[in-house]
Specification:
Blueprint (H helix, E strand, L loop, with lengths): L1 E7 L3 H14 L6 E8 L3 H10 L7 E6 L4 H9 L6 E4 L4 E3 L4 H10 L7 E5 L12 E4 H7 L12 H11 L3 E11 L11 H19 L2 H16 L1
Parallel strand pairs: 1-2, 1-4, 2-3, 6-8
Antiparallel strand pairs: 4-7, 5-8, 6-7
Length: 230
Amino acid sequence: MISILIPTRKRAKKLKTMYESLHHMTSTPDNVEVLLYIDDDDIQSIKFIENNKDKFTVPVKHIVGPRVSLGQACNELYNICTGDLIMGGADDIVFKTEDWDVILENKLKDIKDKICLFSLNDLYQDPSKLATHPVISREALDIFGHFLPPEIDCNYGDEWLTYIFKQINRYYPMPSIVVEHMHWLVGKGDRDNTYAEGSANMNRHSYQAFSKNKDKRDLLVEKLRKVLDE
């Protein structure tokens, strides 16, 4: 099972595009689940779920709650997901590779201890350098006890996880699996309020949460190393 965690805010049209691409590219829909965290003031996304709940081929779970950080939203979704692989998804991505789910599940079988991060190709960042939308094994995340620190908001979650798994040589680039990031910075989308607020948060506290907590990242690295050494 692959769980896709997606905190979303006021992007019902982008959610629809993302979901349709997932529907067409997924080989085994009953082995994938989408989990959405929706802010309680996001009426358009709530209506999207209500209007389409009987049409979803890939199962969708959702939480409606107060607006929280990206890290906290991902953690709440992580707490209810069931996958052996857990993806940090987004509402502005489009799945472009057929059978992407089978490819990942087969790759996981090759890793004896199941401690790994797969870095997909978003056609924006180099997947060998940064896991923009990482897919992480449950075995690794259960050691952490969370998906991301709750202090992380909108940005630097990818940097956080990339650092950890590169330190233990369990970072696996997967350039053949394309999950296109329709980001406004590369001319693939409009700069909506969600992007604008994310940029403000990045400068205000996301970078601080990343830069001042290297000791916390290193502690997670050591936890994983201990398991690998057993």
